[in-house]
Amino acid sequence: MSSPEIASLSWGQMKVKGCSTTYKDCKVWPGGSRTWDWRETGTNHSPGVQPADLEEVVHKGVKTLVIGRGMSEALQVPSSTVDYLKKNGIDVLVLQTEKAVKEYNALAAQGAKVGGVFHSTC
Questions:
Q1: Residue 118 class from Cβ within 10 Å (0-12 exposed, 13-18 middle, 19+ buried)?
Q2: Fewer CB in a 10 Å sphere around the end CB: N or C, the chain?
Q3: Has this prediction a pTM greater than 0.90?
Q4: How far apart are CA 16 and CA 2, in angstroms?
Q5: Angle 34-57-70 (CA atoms, 0-180°, nearest 5)?
Q6: Under a CB-based contact definition with an 8 Å cutoff, are residues 118 and 105 in contact?
Q7: Residue 38 carries which DSSP code?
Q8: In whole angstroms, what is the distance from residue 38 CA to residue 16 CA?
Q9: How many whole angstroms separate alpha carbon 112 and alpha carbon 11?
Q10: Which residue windows are transmembrane per the record (predicted)?
Q11: For residue 38, what are the contacts with CB-CB under 8 A and spacing of at least 6?
Q12: How far is Cα 49 from Cα 24, in angstroms, rounded to an integer?
């Protein structure tokens, strides 16, 4: 299964190719996508993305995970979260969301087993 292309991104809205849902924040992985609901893990801008936010995508067998920190990079990514990914043998890219989407789409187009979590506002 291939990682789906992120078809569009604007403030507060993301579309994934082949999916009719418009997301605010989303998770993507080879063969799927869904809403990233911060309430599930109690995530806030600070301390930011926790391993619990990424477990679902990690368990899909990704080799690279791209984290979009928001348009103004307000979403934090603690070193403990990066360490969690590295301990699982996963390369991680932490970028401003527009750059993160471009990088994710480039990797997906190359056939990489890439996943991502993306914050589409601040």
A1: buried
A2: N
A3: yes
A4: 13
A5: 65
A6: no
A7: G
A8: 19
A9: 27
A10: none
A11: 25, 44, 53
A12: 16
Question: Rounded to the nearest 5°, which phi and psi values hold at 51?
Answer: -50, -35
Amino acid of residue 89: G
Name residue 118's amino acid: F
- Average pLDDT per 10 consecutive residues for the chain, totaling 122 residues: 96 96 97 96 96 97 98 97 97 98 98 98 96
Largest Cα separation within the chain, whole Å, is 35
Q: Which of 30, 94, 22, 36 is nearest to 58 (CA)?
A: 30
Task: Tell me the residue length of the chain.
Answer: 122
53 phi and psi, to 5 degrees?
-70, -25
Report the distance separating Cα 42 and Cα 79, nearest Å: 18
d(CA 30, CA 25): 17
Straight-line distance from the first to the last Cα atom of the chain, in angstroms, rounded to the nearest whole number: 31
Beta strands in 1-122 (DSSP E): 6-10, 13-16, 22-23, 25-29, 32-35, 64-68, 91-95, 114-119
